[in-house]
User: What shape does this take?
Amino acid sequence: MSEALYNTAILRLAASIPHAERLADAQASVRRVSPICGSRVTADVALGDDGRVARFGQEVRACALGQASAAILGTEVVGKHPSEIAAARDALAAFLKGEAETPGDWPGLELLTPARPHKGRHGSILLAFQAAAEAAEQAAAARG
Assistant: This one.
């Protein structure tokens, strides 16, 4: 393993994914799979009356980078509006592609900076944010 890519902070995050249990009564669930490496994330979302994430669950089967990304997502996702999750997903994608200088304002995403040159890892890193954003958007749409 490359020390720069799989550093202590990444490995710590990978071992401590919040909301690591599925929700039995989710308003929306989305599973995303990386075709390159087979990593997969399922995100369950329940929105509150204010339209923000009230409860969140995730099942993560991914490499250390995908797990670290899911941990970063899980730490901050409750209380977020679906548009904030989508914006974080888009900012992270642009950052990984080299189209943005920063990964946006979602706390902790800067820890994924060592993965930028490793294009084969980007899909796994994005999975949790893609699944959560899509689930939150579906839950919001179902509410009307």
